[in-house]
Amino acid sequence: MSKILIIDDERSIRRALREILEFEKFEIEEAENGKEGLEKAKNESFDVIFCDIKMPQMDGMEVLDDLIQAEVATPVIMISGHGNIETAVESIKKGAFDFIEKPLDLNRILVTVRNACDRSTLVEETKALKKTIKRVKGSSIIGETDGIMKIKEMIEKVAPSDARVLITGENGTGKELVARQLHEQSGRNKGPFIEVNCAAIPSELIESELFGHEKGAFTSAVKQKKGKFELAENGTIFLDEIGDMSASAQAKVLRALQENKITRVGGEKDIRINARVIAATNKDLRKEIEEGNFREDLYHRLSVILLHVPALNDRREDIPLLAEHFLTMVCADHGIQRKDFTEEALKELSAVNWTGNIRELRNIVERLVILAGKTITDEDVRMFSNPKVNA
After folding, report:
1. Where do the domains of the chain lie, and which CATH numbers do they carry?
2. SS3 of 30, please?
């Protein structure tokens, strides 16, 4: 239920707004002057604030100024019985969401409130998204085993260059994280990081996805579209699961790497590109070449630097570190007070056969956070690491 604060020195206006908004199932708080309203707005969470302009002691414009100064993001709707165009424009310029004149119009109030609530929701979603992006960007590669330390050293050496990198490893080992670290530690880190999952895109659409298309190039091409190579300008394009790319797309990617230019599907004009290419695969590309499924010349173009990410079963000493890392992350994501593993639980996790690698470990930790008690024991691990249990 959305919560609304009404700041107005006229009791009749507060009562009228309350009746209208409570009928629409909003929760209402009132303040009879600017100082009281400002105090409530700073110390409580509201989705929308109504604020009268003409009030004794502290007028609405002063309240609006103080709210903006305090970085209160709640949309403020200014109301006044002495309104004019200049007043409305001034309040909007200062940062008010909208301006409504008295006598209040029911339909105008409801439309404005719904729009303001939508903006509040969007602001909160944007904040959450920024936190997620910050966490993803700030994610580091967890581990201290020899294989992982070598990966970290290679990233430090390779990232500052524009050399193409081919990352190999089983599904779920963290190849995307390695690619992101290469991007974040490069001189291109202010540019975009564009990921393309070659296995998830149908073969008939992969060329349009990578290189874009012109309007009318095919039946559903109702407008021009830029491809991922263009969108990655001055940044990095990450071609995940490149071993699943179609033969025709492979040929076009090869040309893009050779000539640093592409042509949109249905187009004739060459477009210059400037994107670093990082690729990844869970397949043995040498074997795919022998079987005629992958171009050898493309392999050599992509594999200037080869990085192999070890399977989790080959770095079991890192499992306690990874489990603690995921535990902190999952508890924060779910808004749960941080839980703890017993030593026996961490030993039990280290003994599991991790066929799904790090992705599987994270899923198990999330399951344990949700289903186990405050302290996660080895018995919990045995019970909940098997998805068939209690199914």
Report:
1. 3-133 (3.40.50.2300), 139-310 (3.40.50.300), 313-384 (1.10.8.60)
2. strand
